[in-house]
Specification:
Number of domains: 1
Number of helices: 10
Helix content: 55-70%
Shape: globular
Structural class: mainly alpha
Distance between the termini: 21 Å
Length: about 160
């Protein structure tokens, strides 16, 4: 059983995006859709493809830190501030599974690093194109759209 889309948005995604000073309704919608498609909103948090809500792989996580966040120490510090003090040092990839705000911040940083303009929040197909480019390069657009309709439905009920 996963997390209700409204709760995930209200208590995890929206506050994380505000904390990062990156909030938009389209960003919320993309991250909700990614979580729905990647892990059924948290119903399955671990598999061979990655960790947590967004199924982020260890090499992708490390690369994001090395190639993107390292270039902006202030942003890196802000993201690091969401991670557990001691657990992050011993098992940084585990944070992607157990720390929803940290994994959401990393997922958003992945989107931001790609420098892709976001479609409108009510455009599941446009959001699916961004999801495929950022999270699942070999993914099928209809998988995202189907997950969107199954788990999220009308975004106005969530936002």
């Amino acid at each position: 059983m996963g997390i209700a889309a409204n709760d995930l948005c209200q208590y995890v995604i929206r506050p994380t995006l505000h904390y990062l000073e990156r909030h938009s309704v389209a960003a919320e919608a993309l991250l909700l859709g990614a979580a729905a498609c990647q892990s059924a909103l948290g119903s399955a948090l671990e598999d061979s493809h990655g960790h947590g809500l967004y199924r982020i792989g260890e090499s992708r996580h490390q690369s994001l830190w090395d190639c993107y966040l390292a270039c902006d120490p202030e942003l890196a510090s802000r993201v690091r501030g969401l991670a557990s003090q001691h657990a992050f040092l011993g098992a940084p990839h585990l944070e992607l599974t157990v720390n929803l705000r940290y994994s959401t911040a990393i997922a958003w940083m992945m989107v931001e690093a790609e420098r892709i303009p976001l479609p409108h929040a009510d455009d599941p197909l446009g959001l699916a194109r961004v999801w495929r480019r950022v999270f699942q390069p070999h993914g099928r657009l209809h998988d995202f759209v189907d997950a969107w309709h199954s788990y999220i439905g009308n975004l106005s009920q969530v936002a």
